[in-house]
Amino acid sequence: MSLSDYFADFIATVEPTAWPDSSTLPNVSVIEHAQGALALMPDTPAPDAEAEAEAEATIISAGIHGNETAPIELLGELLAALDAGQLRVGAPVLLILGNRRAIAAGRRYIDTNLNRLFQRDTLTRDDSRFECQRACELMQAVDRFMADVSGPVLHLDMHTAIRDSRYPRFAVEPFSDTATPEFLWQRLADAGMQAGLSQHRHSWTFSHYTRHYHGAQGFTLELGRVAPFGGNDLEPLAPMLDLLRARIAGVTPTASRGAPLVRFEVVDEIMRESEDFRLCFADDIANFTEFAPGSPLVRDGACGERCVTQAPVHVVFPNAHVERGARALLLARPVAQRPVRP
Ligand SMILES: O=C(O)CCC(=O)N[C@@H](CCC(=O)O)C(=O)O
Ligand SMILES: [Zn+2]
């Protein structure tokens, strides 16, 4: 069975799909850590993969939100290249397709937002909601992969945003006590990312999981705007595809040096507290739109109106339709840029 067929079956079938014993990839062990989560472990790592100062193993995930199709198409490109022998596995990689039922239905989620559930001890297998079951499986898959690899790991969890953005491609850095090394930010810039947004507190997303519990480097990557399958412009994502290919091959990416990311940090977040909740600005504003002090942001039946207080803020991921108690928008401010060395 090819990798492409395996993942296509995984989305299409309601029955569990098992990875057959015989792998079609030469010199690579394929291990199914969960349905839709395959580890590719090379018998002999590429020389670069061991020499690199950066993380050698990679977790590549797509489809955590079912309607975010560009990342699924990128994963499809990687699978096709692996199947055709055009891409060799030179470093361990865990390939994950997240929310099978939501992908098949073309929806963000079925029962609840999968990307808020990656927290140990709060989630149990007894919670029958589809995404709760899936989060348990994916956490276990990551734990198993991490037990098999040595050295640092990079997790790239690929998404697309609901709305336009002043920076169409941006990386969200989960909260952590340890800083992301500068060379990794530059790797993302080389891969066509335009901005970086650092979280100010735990958010229990998938990339936060690998970072928080396993000390991996991890990012949520926003790769443009949500579109149906076939409606994505993959051209601006070509440098990202190059980075993913290089990670799998265990080689240093050859991409040209991209402009440094514009860096932001989250300073606050606003939760939806009641059913009676609305945004005080047009529903179609772009991510990173700036609001001046005094501007009203949201009106909530439980908490009243929230306005910008002191300095201007940039609004990211505003969404009045999230579940009650969930994050409805992030407020961010620019981080002073370090001088660029020639
Ligand atoms: O456009 C939106 O409002 C959401 C796009 C998306 O799914 N973003 C991720 C970001 C996760 C993070 O904060 O790291 C999400 O909301 O899960
Ligand atoms: Zn998403």
Beta-strand segment tally: 15
Annotated CATH topology of the largest domain: Aminopeptidase
**The number of domains:** 2
Shape: globular
Radius of gyration equals 20 Å
Ligand species: the ligand O=C(O)CCC(=O)N[C@@H](CCC(=O)O)C(=O)O, zinc ion
Question: In this structure, how is the largest beta sheet organized?
Answer: 12 strands, mixed
What is the name of the CATH superfamily of the largest domain? Zn peptidases
State the helical fraction.
Answer: 10-25%
Query: Kindly state the mean pLDDT as a whole number?
Result: 92
* Uncertain parts: none
Distance between the termini: 49 Å
Structural class computed from helices and strand pairing:
alpha/beta
Number of helices: 8
CATH class of the largest domain: Alpha Beta
Q: Report strand %.
A: 25-35%
Strand arrangement across the biggest beta sheet? 1-2-4-3-5-8-6-7-9-15-14-11
Q: What is the CATH-assigned architecture of the largest domain?
A: 3-Layer(aba) Sandwich
What is the H/E string? HEEHEHEHHEEHEHEHEEEEEEE
GO molecular function: hydrolase activity, acting on ester bonds; succinylglutamate desuccinylase activity; zinc ion binding
Keywords: Arginine metabolism, Hydrolase, Metal-binding, Zinc
Family: Belongs to the AspA/AstE family. Succinylglutamate desuccinylase subfamily.
Function: Transforms N(2)-succinylglutamate into succinate and glutamate.
